[in-house]
Structure formats: structure tokens, C-alpha cells
Design goal:
- The protein is mainly beta.
- It has a single domain (3-137), classed as OB fold (Dihydrolipoamide Acetyltransferase, E2P) (Beta Barrel).
- It has 2 helices and 8 strands; from the N terminus they run H-H-E-E-E-E-E-E-E-E.
- The structure holds zinc ion.
């Protein structure tokens, strides 16, 4: 299991477990305020827009685009020495405005990734019950 997968298996808490439970079912569900409808991620106990503590977990389609990105060339930890270079992207979604998740684009060279790049969700089964939402460049 890679470091990236190990990080995802860190102990979900009561706030984040609905996200990870949905991932195991290959459903991307993001927290949405049950009162004003504002999305938020990572999960929070209260809505930053209206302070409501009522929330729901909305199913998101999985089509998104790169909001921001970087490429890691230096292996800060020995565990990722075989993985560099790898990208880290912040992804936003049309059907979940305001929520952004941090992930990776699979099968992409660093120079292919740019702000606005259209992505499609790809479930990455890392074993040991860890299923990560990762992305591939969307096919036109
Ligand atoms: Zn709200």
C-alpha cells in the first residue's frame, strides 16, 4: 500500500466517515447544508454560510475540473520515492459548487495538467478497504 493510500486510511471520525463510507460504495458524496444548500469539504459540524448544524450527503456526478495543482518531484518521505513525480490536484464540481477535494490525476504527465482541465472520477481500490476518489482526464 502506498503512502497516499495509507493517508486515506487514517481513522475517519464522525464527521468524515460518511464521505469514506460512500467511497467504499464508489459513490462520491459531499456534505451539503440541509438548510441553505451550501456544499462544504472537508466536512464540518456547522455550515459556514448559515451556521446550521443540519447536513446531508449529496451524490455528486464525478465530472469536475482542476481548480489548482502541483507536481511533487522531491520524495519528502522514503515511502514515496518510487512515486515521484506525482501530481496533486484540487478538483471542483459543477454539481457541488463551493466544495473542492484534493486528489490525483491518474495516467497524466505533469505538463498535461492545467487549471480548468476537465476530469472524470475514477475509483481507485487500494486494498484493505480503502477506495480513493481519483481522476482521469475527461474524454471529449
Ligand atoms: Zn447553510
Amino acid at each position: 500500500m502506498s503512502l497516499l493510500s495509507e493517508l486515506a486510511s487514517l481513522h475517519p471520525d464522525s464527521l468524515s466517515s460518511p464521505f469514506w463510507d460512500a467511497c467504499k460504495k464508489r459513490e462520491l458524496r459531499l456534505q451539503r447544508c440541509a438548510d441553505c444548500g451550501a456544499f462544504r469539504h472537508p466536512p464540518l459540524a456547522g455550515c459556514p454560510s448559515c451556521a446550521s448544524t443540519r447536513d446531508e450527503w449529496a451524490l455528486v456526478g464525478g465530472r469536475g475540473r482542476v481548480y489548482s495543482h502541483t507536481t511533487i518531484y522531491h520524495p519528502a518521505l522514503p515511502t514515496v520515492a518510487d512515486e515521484v513525480p506525482y501530481n496533486v490536484v484540487v478538483v471542483e464540481f459543477d454539481d457541488a459548487p463551493g466544495a473542492r477535494i484534493i486528489s490525483n490525476v491518474l495516467d497524466a504527465e505533469p505538463e498535461e495538467i492545467h487549471v480548468g482541465l476537465e476530469l472524470e472520477l475514477h475509483w481507485d481500490d487500494c486494498g484493505d478497504g480503502v477506495v480513493l476518489p481519483r481522476f482521469k482526464i475527461a474524454q471529449k
